[in-house]
Structures are given as structure tokens and as C-alpha cells.
Amino acid sequence: MLKTFKFGGVHPKEEKLTAGLAIQRLPLPKKVILPVAQHIGVPAMLAVKKGDLVKTGMLIAKSGGFVSANIHAPVSGRVSKIAERIDASGYKSLSIVIETEGDIWEESITLDQPFQAIEALTTAELLLKIRTAGVVGLGGAAFPTHVKLEPPAGMKADTLLINGVECEPYLTSDHSLMLEKGSEILKGTSLLMKVLKVQRAIVGIEINKPDAILLLRDLAKNFQGIEVEPLQLKYPQGSEKQLIQALTGRMVGPGALPASVGVVVNNVATAFAVYEAVAFNKPLIERVVTVTGKGVSKPGNFLVRIGTPIKELIEAAGGLPEDTGKVILGGPMMGKAISNLKIPVTKGMSGIVLIQEKEASRQQVMPCIRCAKCVDGCPMNLEPYLLMMISEKGMWEQAESNHVTDCIECGSCSYTCPSSRPLLDYIRTGKSKVGKLIRSRQNSVLTDKQIPI
Amino acid sequence: MNNILFITIIVISAIGSISAVVLYFVSKKFMVFEDPRIDEVEALLPSSNCGNCGFAGCRAFADACISADSLNQLNCPVGGNETMKAIAHYLQLDTLLVSPKTAVLRCNGNCEVRPKTSKYEGVLTCGAAHGVYGGETGCHYGCLGFGDCAVVCQFDALHMNPVTGLPEVDDLKCNGCGACIAACPRLLLELRKQMPKHRKVYVACRNKDKGKTAAKACKVACTGCQECQKVCNFGAITIERNLAYIDAEKCTLCRKCVTVCHTNAILEINFPTRKIKSEQISEA
């Protein structure tokens, strides 16, 4: 019996149209747009001004705090504008626009010859390299990796989990990366293990990627302490807490960090980025993005520079089909429909899914029939029907006591609902309202006691 | 037969009288003293229990009035000065008179002047739409038009206008309770000082984009051109992040700014029509 997580979960149709396709490198975009807030935490601080000449890999925005990440120029050229541009959130945010003039790399980046003395590097040196390179979690949340690698005092990790699950339908960027850069991923994994001082790492891969499992298993024989574990097909297995449950059987409490149960989770793409950062001093300036959809003529996995407008990606995949109903950033389950194709690729973007019009429209909402399918489907053991009802009525205190903040917004509830009720829409509203309530409460406590943050 | 009836009556009456005696002593022993003035003050309040005074309803507010030394910090926005005067009179305390306020919508981007650029299909509430993206139009600051404010208004003072797609405030019914201000995720509603005859002059825009971008998204957007600021003799207009704001405390309703605004972002409401200039002067 293959491992999986205990509670809830659904199995949407996989639709991995681009599985096994080779990674194509996209030509340099004419211009790149880089929002200074493309990771979780404090936005980065500008380190260039309008008119500056930048080289590929040059630091253009400096990390704005501990939970923040550096941003580097993905092309060489001139900073043409520093202005507000629409980003993946659907809102405008401060961005750096660079007109491409070429691809001249910074001297410190040694792409042709990997750094030889990797073994001799100390933990602190490794951590510094990862932090300098601006590596963030590439699975989707874009949480700064160096923060994960320094668990808070009192918490000690004993296991590193590498997330190669890719449970979202359509997306195959991690899959293709595992097939092509398997040994680099494992080298990155052993570097992460060294930083965390753990002896054991498990790479979790869902069973629908047998080629990746076999390849990584084969390669892992050369590495000490790395296991590859096939997992049963179930969404949302790629979510941090679900993956920990599936691979180690440990449960992370509400609001707690994975490090509280001795686990740190990183994506395969992050492990690859860590390897590149350490071996070549190469900052995180490109990533693999899947462009797919049933109507797309040339779907594929593209290696693109961060900041490329997604319009260019869609054109590379054969252009926007006529019958496109929605353009979704990320997978169809958790991704976000966007209203503008000028939005740039950010560090956390793993795919672009073009959904056909006939599939994109919402069904008519029917009354709740109390079938409890949403309760069975919820991987966090919540009661989605109840949370929706109390959010609809604006009962925020009740929503809080029913743990609305534990929702991971995986969309399993909305997916299973036979009445097509917009469960997640309401729960998300409730979650943001409750989050605000909690923050305002904490802030008032802080001002009362005058605790400096 | 008679006997059974008789015994029943006796037993029931005995239980009744014993319980009465016990209850009497228990009620004496555990009596909670409540200031009778709370009831009186509560009777003076509007009983809307809207909570916009900062207390959990009218009774809690009455309780706070009783225990306060002066009523300067307390204000019932719904009852207004009349209510506060009555309470002050009853409790023999001082109260500060505040100018009554009404809500205004700082967006005038109706369907005509602010064209739609995308289609939103999710749950039709402003809170949900605001969480997803910038909205159906090119303006990421403007009214979403799903009427969260109209839903929370307890006083029937806010209605969605189906033609413009914007909420409209009924000046006579609005008492400035502030519920709509909290409901709007975009902070478009503002409580402004009530002027004579409900006249208002305000910038009906919250777009902080640069002028060109703002004007492209909406024909009546404030572009931050500073013309109004130059023409204002009272220093009532400030411009921050490409957006003008008229301070209601300093504004004298002279309406010079309205004439110079080239995008008609500044609205004048409840004024007589401009053509009859002589009448205006005599009125003033």
C-alpha cells in the first residue's frame, strides 16, 4: 500500500498534457517586469534607479528584512522604468522594468565551471550563498528558503522532505525538471541536508510519474541518506502539511511550523535552485513554467527568465486559442484567473493553464443538500459548508472558533460539491477577515505593552 | 374521589409556598444591583444597537454613560447631538457637541465612464471580489458595485443604483453610523461633516495611479493635476499620491475647484443650478 495523507483529499482528472516533454528554453524577452514583492514577507528594497545599466544576475532589489529575498536582473539591459505594474495578485505593485539589450552575465557567476570545493563550504557559507541568490520556495508560495533553513530556537529538524508531488492537474514543470536535472536536484538536496544538519531526506513523488521515481531512485544510490518514496495519487498531497503527514505520519498543529515536528519541506525546483546558487553562484533568475491547456496548439515546459510577460510564453506555446475562457496562473485547483496578459512570470509561478470557455464557466449554484462531501474532502478536517455559511453571514468570531484560518485554500470542497456551491470563495473572504481581526488584536496588544517588533 | 382532589391541592400548594419562600431568599441573596438610570438612559437612545459608538449595543453605551465623569468622549452617531444633549441633561454631565456627519461615496465611475475590461464570475460580494483581483474595470481603487455597503445599512439610507452600478446615499436617512465605511473593502465611503442643506463638495475618486493611467481607466478620475489646489483660497485641498482630497473642516463650499477640474472628478451636490448667478449671491 502506497503512502498518502489520512484525511480528505480528492482526485481530479490529471490532464498532464505536457508530461515527459523536454524543457524548452525561451528566447530572451524584449523587456522584463520584476515586482519587488514576489515572495512572501517584506518586499525587497530597490537597489537600482531608472537609467541604470544592469548585467544578468546583478542585484536589483535587496532583501527588505529577514523574511524577504533578493531580486536579481534576469537579463542585461537598461532599467527603463520603476513604476507600478499589474502583477499576479491582480493589483498593481512597485516593479522594476528592464529593457533587454543582451545577455551579459555578472563575472561572479561561473556557469561553465561548477564551484569545486562544495564539500569544504561551512553551513554558514552555504546559507549565505542561498540567501544572496534570492532563492524562494518554487512550489508556489514563494517563501524565502533561507528562513526555512534556520528553524526558530528550540526547534530542531531531523528530516528533510523534498516535494516532487506536483498534485495539481495539468502542471508538469517539476516532473520535467526531475527528469532532466535529477542529479542536480539530489546534489541540492544533500546541500540542504548539510545546512539543516539532518541525516535523512525523503523525496516524495506521486505514482503518476513512474519515470521520475525510477530515475531519482537510481541516482539516489550515490547519495547518502536520500530516499525516494512513491506516493498514492491524491490532491492536495503537494501541500506542506499533507506531505509531512503522508511521508512521516507526523501531524503539524494549527498555525504551527513544520519545524515543530522536526521536518522541513522544500520543492524539487527549490533544491535545484539551491544547487545552482551554490555551485555557480547563480541567482534565481529563471524557472520552468508549464504552459498548457486543451486548446493550446504547442503546450510545453519552458525555461524562462523571471519577469517575462506571460503573453510571450503563451505565444511560444502557439498563441492564445480563440475559445479561451480563463487564463489561470498556477494549477486549475489553486491557481488564480487573471485579467491581463501583461502580468510577468514571478518566482512562484509554476504554470499557466488556458481553460476552454465551455469548461471555464461556473455552474448554477444550488442549495446545500447536506451530503457532507465537502467535509469528507477537506484535508484539514474542517467543515466547509459551515464555514461558508458563517462567512456569508459575516459571523467572523464564529468563523475563527471554527478554525477558518487553518484552511489551505486547496479547493477540494468546491470541487466535490454536487450543488456547485462557491464554498472556497466565501471561506477565503472569511479567512482574510479573520486574519485582519487577529492582526488588529495583536497590534493593539503590542501598542499597549510597547513591545518593539 | 373528593379526597384525592383535596390531597392534590394541598400538596401542590405546599410545594408552591415552600418554593416561593426559598426563591424569595435566594433572590435577596444573589440579587445583582443594576443602576436604574441605565434603563432610563437606554430609553433615550435610538435602540438601533448598531455598535458604531464603539460599544456592544445601546445598553452597553448607556452603562458607559452612567459610569463616565463627562460625556465628552462618548457619542452616539445615530442619535446625534439631540440624544447626547438629552442624556447630558438627565445625568447632569457635560457633553461636547459634534457636527453631524453623512457618508459620501468617493467614486463616480459608473458603467459609462469606466468601461469593463474583464468579467468577474465568483461570488457577488465586494469582499470576495476584492480578494481576487483589481476588479472588472481598469481602475483598481474604484467601486466594485456588488453592494456590501447597501447590505449593512440598517437605516435604509444606501441603495444600489442599477443604472450607474454605484451605491447612492440618501442624505436625509443617513445618520453617519459608519457601518458602510467598515463594509467597503476599498475604503471608498467616507464620513463627512454635514453642511447646510446637505450640500457637499468632494473629490469622488480614490485612484492613486498616475494621471495618465487613471484617466485611461476612468473618464472621471482624479489625475492629480493640482489645478484645484492652486485655486483653493482656504487651503482645504491636499494632494497625495496623485489624488486630491478636500478637507471638509476647511472647505467653505465656494465651488471654485469644481469649475477648474477638467475631469469632473469633484462633485457638487444639492446646490442650485449654476446658471442663476444673481440668486446665488443674494442667497449667500
Short description:
The complex is a heterodimer of chains A (453) and B (284). Chain A folds into 3 domains: 23-280, Rossmann fold; 288-360, Roll (Ubiquitin-like (UB roll)); 373-449.
Low-confidence stretches of chain B: 279-284
What is the strand content of chain B? 5-15%
Number of helices of chain A: 14
By secondary-structure content and strand pairing, the structural class of chain B works out as alpha+beta
CATH homologous superfamily assignment of the largest domain in chain A:
NADH-ubiquinone oxidoreductase 51kDa subunit
Radius of gyration of chain A from CA coordinates: 22 Å
* Total domain units of chain A: 3
Number of helices of chain B: 11
| Beta-strand content bin of chain A | 15-25%
Helix content of chain A: 25-40%
Separation, N- and C-terminal Cα atoms of chain A:
48 Å
**What is the makeup of the main sheet of chain B?**
2 strands, antiparallel
**Widest sheet: strand ordering of chain B:** 1-4
Oligomer: heterodimer
Give a count of the beta strands of chain A, DSSP E runs of length 2 or more.
17
Biggest interface found: A-B, 21 and 15 residues
Q: Spans of chain A of 5+ residues with little confidence (pLDDT < 50)?
A: 446-453
Order of strands in the sheet with most strands of chain A: 1-14-13-17-15-16
Largest sheet entry of chain A: 6 strands, mixed
Question: Secondary-structure map with pairings?
Answer:
The complex is a heterodimer of chains A (453) and B (284).
Chain A: E1 23-25, E2 31-35, E3 45-46, E4 53-54, E5 59-62, E6 71-72, E7 76-86, E8 92-102, H1 123-132, H2 145-148, E9 159-164, H3 173-180, H4 182-196, E10 200-206, H5 210-220, E11 226-231, H6 240-248, E12 263-267, H7 268-280, E13 286-292, E14 300-305, H8 310-316, E15 324-329, E16 336-337, E17 351-356, H9 357-360, H10 373-377, H11 384-392, H12 396-401, H13 412-416, H14 423-449
Parallel strand pairs in A: 1-14, 9-10, 9-12, 10-11, 13-17
Antiparallel strand pairs in A: 2-8, 3-5, 4-7, 5-6, 7-8, 13-14, 15-16, 15-17
Chain B: H1 2-29, H2 36-44, H3 58-67, H4 80-91, E1 101-105, H5 126-132, H6 148-152, E2 158-161, E3 166-169, H7 179-183, E4 189-193, E5 200-203, H8 211-217, H9 227-231, E6 237-240, E7 243-246, H10 256-260, E8 266-269, H11 277-283
Antiparallel strand pairs in B: 1-4, 2-3, 5-8, 6-7
